[in-house]
Sequence to fold (577 residues):
Amino acid sequence: MSIALQGTGVSKGIAIGKVNIIDRDQIEVNQVTLAKQDIETEIIRFENALILAHQQLKRIRDNLPVEKTAEIAGFIDAHLLMLEDSLLTQAPIHLIREHQCNAEWALKLQRDNLVHIFDEMDDPYLSSRKMDVEHVIARVQRILRGYIEQPNESFDNVANAIVLADDLTPADTVLMQHHGVLAFATEFGGTTSHTAILARSLGIPAIVGLRRARPYIRPSDTLIVDGSQGLIIVNPDERTLEYYRHRQREDRRYRAGLTKIKEAPTATLDGTPITLHANIEFPEDMIAVKRVGGEGIGLYRTEFLFMNRPQPPDEEEHLDAYTRVIKALKGGQITIRTLDLGADKQAESTRHTLLTANPALGLRAIRLCLKDLRLFKPQLRAILRASSLGKVRMLIPMVCEVQELVQVNNLLQEVRKELTQESLKFDPNMPLGAMIEVPAMAVCTDIFAKYVDFFSIGTNDLIQYTLAIDRVDDAVNYLYDPLHPAVLRLIKMSIDTANRLDKPISMCGEMASDSRYVRLLLGLGLRSFSVNPEALLEIKQIINNTNMQGLTRLANKILKSPTPADATKVLEIINQA
Fold:
């Protein structure tokens, strides 16, 4: 009898094949009390384990296929950097001395300390970083217990198989792809984990967060993995198999068709040119951007630099991340958004500042940056320095009053003077933009236009603030509707005002990545989209198959619709055109 299991789809695609269960036994760690004269020897044993773990990861990175080395080495480098962090190199040594205990126990204590810190933070990004720490610590523990990992030994039988595991590291994912894995599914993990991002970048169908799937899956069972729906079907019957084989064939044909337009210009059938850029969160996301032929970055979220650390990043760390993206773009435009912490995104280095009854309406984004220049000024300096390397624009989030932009411009002028005195290069004419994600900004776009060079509409927050609902609150998120007439009118108002004042305006929120709304947005006057890399080719195909004739009339009809249900009926007509 077939069984359906639900997880979270993190990489689209359908795979059908035999399961290969990777079962790494949980490492049992017991405390051993050491004699004083043995403590220094134990510390040396621990340090040797760190060296060996470093060598293992470096060997994996160095053995990457030549054509992929530059693209995906960064994921392995992230774990290598953790092996050099004092939280893993020095803290366990202090614990060995303090408790006179074995290295395994000291590492366990430090692991528990770090996990407790992460568990205190209700943040999906931090949860995924917790898994990275767990991966690195588990590697060191296996070495301490005498398990010497051989290259590829866990993945000899994954070719043409679907891998099921409790969790997988980025290194595991790279090796599996190299060995021809069909798909993978894990009991744990989240959508923003490095492993999930890498799966999307490599085009491997993947599901995470299955939770207790193991009792229902036996070795060599046949599985269907539907990465779009986050669904696994165990031992499907022939009718289900044929249905998914058909879907798989259709999906391959569809994707092959999308690949053909990868190099084509983005323009409607009647010749209206459209700008189509990609959204990224990590330098490593450039793998996915390049795979779909992305020519520019319309939104580079920089929050990842501030996560999973007690202190904020310095200027050089900012600059290194931006430089990697600029080099990967090879001349394309990049829009770097300044720090947008607060609400559903928290970081340890700012947590004490952000404690408030309603963080979505509190000290977040540009408000936080202007209050704490130790966060903001190093980023401003790095973005300006990066502007000398390519076509860089800077985007300010959560703007709601002119004075914020005045302060930003004053700070930029101050930083320009400093960089000039230090003989550091920058583009003195680097464009400055503002996000339209607060209704006040949308209503007063004409006023703000005097202080910026361009705008970008962030629909995620604009919808949330317009409708007075928390989009991550299950009790009210059913009210989150992009077709609400108030939301559409604010979008239309912003676009019309920006166009009238000759200020470029784009949309980088999730609405731009949703295929249902592409033609509506074109009808509302939008000519610049920034979308998730995995949606880029689909959005491009819709644009290239759209005739602008009649779209404006239908979009205006939607603006007059009294309810989202009425708007949906008109939207169906638009999408059938």
About this structure: The domain at 266-468+504-518+527-547 is CATH 3.20.20.60 (TIM Barrel). The chain has three domains: 3-24+152-238, 36-144, 266-468+504-518+527-547.
